[in-house]
Write a structure and sequence with these properties.
Elements (H helix, E strand, L loop, with lengths): L1 H12 L5 H8 L3 H13 L20 E9 L7 H9 L4 E6 L6 E7 L2 H12 L5 E8 L5 E2 L2 E2 L14
Antiparallel strand pairs: 1-3, 1-4, 2-3, 5-6
């Protein structure tokens, strides 16, 4: 399990690392790394590999929003059932059960603010268990997936004014 954890840490930083590079970084041999990756995938710990995209810079970028959703459950319906229905929508990029003032945090991707608003109002809000939604549009992303989005200026010094 120790080897799997070391491999997982490397993959979380950069999923494009090849087996030889992961072996060099962890001090493990290539066969152990390959076995660890296969085990992580078959055990459902690693579900996929994705690029971290700066949608603000991408051509035909996407609008991102975080929707807070409150639900009221009954004896037959639990959080898992509601989450399963919400997660099936292609517009849902991430879905989290959270503590605090609301039950779910849903990250939504859409082509426009109208698309996101329409999705929430026509698909999510009408669900019988949903009692309230609040949508927050993401205006600027500074860090996502552990990756800091830089503006291209490598000078991190603070300006000094007289």
């Amino acid at each position: 399990m120790e080897a799997e954890r070391e491999v997982l840490d490397v993959l979380a930083r950069n999923a494009r690392e090849d087996i030889a590079d992961i072996a060099a970084q962890t001090g493990l041999d290539a066969d152990t790394v390959e076995t660890a990756i296969e085990s992580l995938e078959s055990d459902g710990i690693v579900h996929g590999y994705q690029a971290v995209v700066d949608w603000d810079r991408a051509p035909d970028g996407k609008i991102r929003a975080i929707a807070e959703i409150n639900v009221e459950l009954d004896r037959e319906t639990g959080y898992e059932q509601v989450a399963d229905r919400i997660a099936r929508f292609p517009a849902v990029d991430a879905l989290h059960l959270v503590s605090g003032d609301y039950d779910f945090a849903v990250e939504v991707l859409g082509g426009s603010m109208h698309d996101v608003s329409e999705f929430i109002s026509e698909q999510v809000a009408p669900m019988p268990e949903v009692t309230q939604t609040v949508t927050h549009y993401i205006m600027e992303t500074y860090k996502d997936g552990g990756v800091r989005f830089a503006d291209g200026d490598d000078d991190d010094r603070l300006s000094v004014s007289p």
